[in-house]
UniProtKB/TrEMBL annotation:
Protein name: ABC transporter permease
One GO BP annotation of this record: transmembrane transport
Family under the similarity heading: Belongs to the binding-protein-dependent transport system permease family. CysTW subfamily.
Topology in the lipid bilayer: Multi-pass membrane protein
PANTHER family named among the record's database cross-references: INNER MEMBRANE ABC TRANSPORTER PERMEASE PROTEIN YDCU-RELATED, INNER MEMBRANE ABC TRANSPORTER PERMEASE PROTEIN YDCU-RELATED-RELATED
Major subcellular site: membrane
Domain ABC transmembrane type-1 positions: 66-273
Signal peptide stretch: none
UniProt source species: Seohaeicola zhoushanensis
Tagged with keyword Cell membrane: yes
Keyword Transmembrane: yes
Localization (cell): Cell membrane
Entry superkingdom: Bacteria
């Protein structure tokens, strides 16, 4: 009994340390958000006040960035799912194993590449003289370079590419748990491949899709690097807003209040998606 207690303590120690670090960090932000900006950017000072939250909620810029972040994260997550589903299906059900291995290798290389490496790779590919524009120009499809950078298109492409490994790896397990005999029964009754996919495969896969969607949505919400490098200051997400408040304006209380508002909004959005996921699972079990 004592050995089991010791093993449990050893296993729980890393999680406990991580929890203490996270709670301390968020506790510091929540505490510092209740004060005014210190003199000469020296942190925070004065008496407790909710003025920072009033500034955050009253600012049209902050509200716009917050809603844009939530909306863009949903759109990019759905696009990622749309790409990841067929890739996961091919990985699990490919008749030629080398095809599945090749896709898994490409996803693994993408997953192991650093965010900065991927961001600068997309800068090279999507630039005015990048590979895409040069190829389209040489083929005579365009006369002028397309504007693929410093807008939501370039940022969206980079973030979807970043989210793709998380979605594929999660969906591979969900696809492997599908019962192929149900799909074969539908095909034997005369259903086409498309009808079988949408009427049989997708309903069975839907609970896994919702879990994956919640996961990548939470990752997309915290996007910072790609909007900063590929957005060129024209594309802003809430993480960039917080960064500017902290390291450009040196207004720690304002940045902390923005972080708290964003954190609450993100938790509410993820909670709603979790409720939707549970409801889908209940409907699927009936």
């Amino acid at each position: 009994m004592e050995r089991q207690s010791n093993r449990l303590a050893v296993l729980l120690t890393p999680a406990l340390i991580l929890a203490i670090v996270i709670v301390s960090a968020y506790g510091y932000f929540a505490y510092s958000s209740l004060f005014a900006k210190g003199p000469m950017g020296s942190g925070f000072a004065g008496t407790i006040t909710f003025e920072n939250y009033t500034r955050v909620l009253a600012s049209a810029s902050n509200r716009s960035v917050l809603f844009t972040t939530l909306y863009a994260s949903v759109v990019m997550s759905v696009l990622t799912i749309a790409i990841a589903v067929p890739m996961a299906m091919v990985i699990v059900r490919a008749k030629r194993q080398w095809v599945a291995n090749l896709i898994m290798l490409a996803i693994a290389v993408t997953f192991l590449s650093g965010g900065v490496t991927r961001a600068y790779s997309w800068l090279i590919l999507l630039g005015n003289k990048g590979l895409f524009n040069l190829a389209l120009t040489e083929l005579g499809m365009i006369e002028r370079p397309l504007k693929l950078l410093y807008n939501w298109l370039g940022v969206g492409i980079a973030i979807v590419h970043y989210l793709l490994p998380f979605a594929v790896f999660t969906l591979v397990g969900a696809v492997r748990n599908l019962n192929p005999s149900v799909e074969e029964a539908a095909r034997s009754l005369g259903a086409s491949r498309s009808v079988t996919f949408w009427r049989v495969t997708m309903p069975m896969l839907l609970p896994g899709l919702m879990v994956t969607l919640t996961l990548i949505f939470s990752i997309a919400l915290a996007s910072f690097l790609f909007p900063m490098l590929l957005g060129g200051g024209k594309v802003r997400m809430i993480a960039n807003q917080i960064y500017d408040r902290m390291f450009v304006d040196y207004d720690i209380p304002y940045a902390a209040a923005t972080s708290v508002v964003f954190l609450v909004s993100a938790f509410v959005a993820i909670w709603l998606m979790t409720l939707l996921s549970k409801q889908v699972k209940r409907l699927n079990e009936r």
